[in-house]
Each structure stands twice: as structure tokens, then as C-alpha cells.
Amino acid sequence: MAVAYHDYYETLGVPRDASDEEIRRTYRRLARRYHPDVNKEPGAEDRFKEISEAYEVLGDREKRERYDRLGANWRSGEDVSGAAGFGGFGGGPGAGGAGGPDIRFDFGGGGGVGGDFSDFFDQLFRARGGGGMGGGRSRAGRGGFDGFATRGGDHEAELELTLEEAAAGGRRHLSFGDGREYDVEIPPGVRDGQRIRLSGQGGAGAGGGPPGDLFLRVRLRPHPRFRVDGRDLSVELPVAPWEAALGATVPVPTLTGTVRVKVPAGSSCGRRLRLRGAGMPGPRGGHGDLHAVVKIAVPKQLGERERELFEQLRDTSAFDPRRGA
């Protein structure tokens, strides 16, 4: 999974030689303008996240020095864009998609914009009863407002599983290319697109704020045999013409093995035979169903005796499939 970063100086609109005070002043102005509690325009929240991510780095002298020296790889000091993990699970620090880490803030319900930036946040905090609120808290120094602590960004990476692995669940050991390793509990029956949270394994917080989370988004590999519909599965069941006409007991594959199912006499293509409880497990127990869909298969080549019998059946039978009689 590729790791992409914005140019943080460009994000804040400051030159690369900007002073700490200039960066702080610019950030305050932009944060007040784009904060989602006061700006409801489309894209304002995304813009607020971008400038907050930029300030997390440029507002910290040590992080800024590393960013100036290493650029996009400032977090680890090495190229993690091609890091690979378990089953196609890639990424590394900061693997938050094309726009970088997703920094979330929850300052509560609104509040007006006062005469300066500290008043603005004081109003937001008082609306919910004080500091330490959601994703941020105020931090005052001798000179007044000195910034605020923010929760680190949430990162996301993909975890590719086979259908059998998703159905079984269980503990798995995952490794990043940058050396990080995790033991992750996969819930049985995890679905495509579902996210598994690793608490505190995302981006570092700013100003003493807590780290964000790492989310593993499950992607199920296409299965050569089964099709998924919620908790139910379907599978094609090839049967011979005489099995469909006369009825037969035939094997049907499942996620855990094979069972034998009775095909009723007179079955046509598309008939669905339901195997209760043979589908995917549910989050609160129980399973979906497996639907075996009859597909009549004919031999591509006939032996001499087979041809004689089919010709005899043709000459004897009054069945016309176009009329259904």
C-alpha cells in the first residue's frame, strides 16, 4: 500500500523558512476558519484535518527538522511505500490513504468565534464542561494560549483474507515491512469492507495528545467456487441429465468439507437446494445458508453406446422443453 503525504508547508501556505511563530499564527487562523463546528461548507472538515496534520509536524521543532531532512519518510527515516505484510497487507507508519492520516477532532457542540483564537476554543470547551474533550484540549502557558493537544491521526491499511480464513476467524500474526508486528484477533465471519481496530497504533498525538488508531479494512479474495451474499453463500452444482431427470444424491462442497445432498427428480437448471447453516457465521452466533444451484452438464463427447441411448431417448420421449410438456 503506497503511503502519500501532502507538502505540509504548502498545506499551511507558509515558506519553508517560516518562523515558529509564523507557523503557529497561520495555523490558528486557518483552524478557526475551517473548524467543522463553525464552518459547514463542503470540504471544510477535510481542509481542517489537512492543516491540523501539517501543524502536528511543523509545529514541533524535532518533527519539523526530520520532515525537512527526510521529506515524506520523516516518520520512519526509510522508504515504506512498498512495504508488504500479511496476505497483501501493506503500508507503514502514516498509511492513511491518498490524503495521508485521518486526524479526527470532536470539540463538542459549536460555540461562537471570539476576538482571538484562544477565546474561540475556550468557548468550545466551556460548551462541554472543560478541557480534555473528545479529540483535543486547551493548554495555556504564561503567555496565554499556547496551542492545544490533539489526538493522533487514524491510519488504515487493507487486510486480504480468503473466504475460508474469514469464516474461521482466529488469531493471526501480522508484520509490517518497517518491523512492526501485531497479533490480531479476526472475528469469525468477518465481512468484506469491515474494519478491525488496533487501538493506539495510529499516528502520534500532538501536544501530548493520545495516539490515533490503526484500522485494518478486510478485503475478501474472489473465491473460485463460492459467491457471497451477506451471510449466505451460493455454489454451482453440476448434475448429469439423468441425475436431474431421475433424481440422485450428489456431493456438494462447503467451506469446511463436503456434504451429500439429494437432487429431486425432475430438477431443471437454476433450481436452488438450500443447506441450512452451511453459510458464513454471524457476529452473534448462528450461520447463513448455502444454496446449491443446479446446473445440468452434458458430456462433450459421446461414446457409441451413449449416442445410441440418447438417440433412443430422443425418438421415444414426448418431452418438448420449449413447451414445458
Protein architecture, described:
There is one protein chain. The protein contains eight helices and 13 strands. The two termini are 58 Å apart. The longest helix has 15 residues, at 20-34. It has 325 residues and is of the alpha+beta class.
Strand percentage = 15-25%
Dominant shape: elongated
The whole-angstrom Rg is: 30 Å
| Terminus-to-terminus distance | 58 Å
Largest sheet, in brief, is: 4 strands, mixed
Major sheet strand order: 8-9-13-12
Task: Give the number of helices.
Answer: 8
**What is the structural class?**
alpha+beta
Order of helices and strands: HHHHHEEEHEEEEEEHEEEEH
Key terms:
325 residues; elongated; disordered N terminus
Quick rundown:
Helices cover 25% and strands 24% of the residues.
Layout of strands and helices, then pairs:
Layout: H1 8-12, H2 20-34, H3 44-58, H4 61-70, H5 117-126, E1 136-141, E2 144-150, E3 155-161, H6 163-168, E4 170-175, E5 181-186, E6 195-198, E7 214-220, E8 227-229, E9 232-239, H7 241-246, E10 248-253, E11 258-263, E12 272-275, E13 290-296, H8 304-316
Parallel strand pairs: 3-7, 9-13
Antiparallel strand pairs: 1-2, 4-5, 6-7, 8-9, 10-11, 12-13
Helix pairs in contact: 2-3
